Automatic annotation (TrEMBL):
Domain of life: Eukaryota
Pfam family, one: SnoaL_2
InterPro entries: Fungal_Meroterpenoid_Isomerase, NTF2-like_dom_sf, SnoaL-like
Phylogenetic classification of the source organism: Eukaryota, Fungi, Dikarya, Basidiomycota, Agaricomycotina
Boundaries of every SnoaL-like domain copy: 20-124
Gene3D superfamilies according to UniProt: 3.10.450.50
Organism listed in the record: Somion occarium
Family matches, as SUPFAM superfamilies: NTF2-like
Name the UniProt record assigns to this protein: SnoaL-like domain-containing protein
Length: 153
């Protein structure tokens, strides 16, 4: 796992530090870290909606979903190219690469909009809107389905 150091994340605000912990937790499949930085009512929305990826509406739903997906990855590397940091919101433009156990060349690009709030005396993520490269993501979902025996769509 790695989150490549870039000028975009050189001097992170407190809320960007929470986002970076989330990115690192995703890259390492570190569920304890992920659970520590998201709220109980955490929401993940995936875009574009025509990909048909369901919205996850709780911490437990999000973590359960990741426990099915993240073990496919190894050598995950993320690079954050740009950050927009405003009160209660962090937007990142990122790229990621990884090896996969399903022999799919994982080279992804994202725009993520995080909502950050103070809960229980600490900053947590309450929502993420994840915009992905739709052509790449559709291919990856098909490869996952094929590997699971469901066939590619």
């Amino acid at each position: 796992m790695s989150v490549e150091p870039t000028p975009a994340i050189a001097n992170p605000s407190a809320q960007l530090q929470v986002v970076l912990k989330w990115v690192g937790g995703m890259a390492k499949a570190d569920f304890a870290t992920l659970e520590s930085v998201i709220s109980d009512d955490f929401i993940q929305e995936a875009y574009p909606v025509n990909l048909g990826i369901p919205t996850l509406t709780s911490k437990s739903a999000f973590i359960d979903h990741l426990k099915q997906i993240l073990p496919v990855f190894s050598n995950f590397k993320a690079k954050i190219n740009e950050v927009i940091d405003a009160p209660g919101k962090v937007v990142i433009h990122a790229n990621a690469t990884a090896d996969t156990s399903i022999n799919f060349d994982y080279v992804a690009e994202y725009i993520m909009i995080f909502t950050v709030a103070e809960q229980g005396g600490k900053l947590v993520l309450t929502k993420v809107k994840e915009f992905t490269d739709s052509k790449f993501t559709a291919g990856f979902i098909g490869a996952l389905q094929k590997a699971a025996g469901g066939g590619a769509q």
